[in-house]
Amino acid sequence: MDDSSTFLNKRDYRKTPFKTGVALGESTTAGGTATRRELTWVHRLGRLIDEAQLEPIRLINSGLGANLVSPRSPAYDSSGKPSAMERYDKHVLAHRPDLVLISYGLNDARGGTPLESFLEDLGHIVLDIKERSGALMVLINAYYMTAFDQYPPFDRGSLESFMGFNAAMRHLALECDVLYADVFEAQGMAPWMVDPDGVHANNLGHRVIANRVFEVLARNCSALAQSAVESRKTFEPWRDESVLRRR
Fold first, then answer.
1. Region for residue 96 given its phi and psi (left: phi exceeds 0; alpha: psi -120 to 50; beta: otherwise)
2. What is the per-residue pLDDT for 1?
3. What predicted TM-score, i.e. pTM, was given to this entire model?
4. Which ranges of the chain would DSSP assign to H, the alpha helix?
């Protein structure tokens, strides 16, 4: 298949501007240890979307610290409640979103949730939101962290378990026909993107996470090319290479 055929067959997940988005997730989604609200990945992502489309998005942050996917986790009693399974009706669907970002795995892997039950519950949430809202869904994997042996009962994870959870989430995204943002890979296992607490992304980590999620949206949604297309029609030439061309 030549390049032109590939272009013609490119799937476009969204042709019109996003109006309302919701980010459902754990503490780093909520803001974690970012030093200002404006530096969180959810806020940064909203600004990137606003720059790219012709009207602003209303991006709602439904992140909750120490949150788990469902009450089935062994660490549920020590978690931030209600779980995603118990709250997505009120904290996502009630907003009537056309974009939903779901970010889980970190706390469930650390809290000893069996991967099979995690995937079953996460898959239920993804498919139910997708069916009832018609929103474009983005599944965001577990962020990179370093303090796996601290903060009991959230001390049962490991780098290997995170990789297993993330690989399974990538497969789940394919099964559910939703987009997948590999923020773990984007962070490159760089410890300087992690807060001194060893769990949360720092300001730099939040920037990288926002960029990766935006890249996934931009590669799959022509709505995010609208600003670039429109500005090209009226821009004033600004390049001046005359000095470089002098011999």
1. left
2. 45
3. 0.95
4. 3-8, 27-30, 41-52, 84-91, 106-110, 115-133, 159-176, 183-187, 203-220, 226-234, 242-245
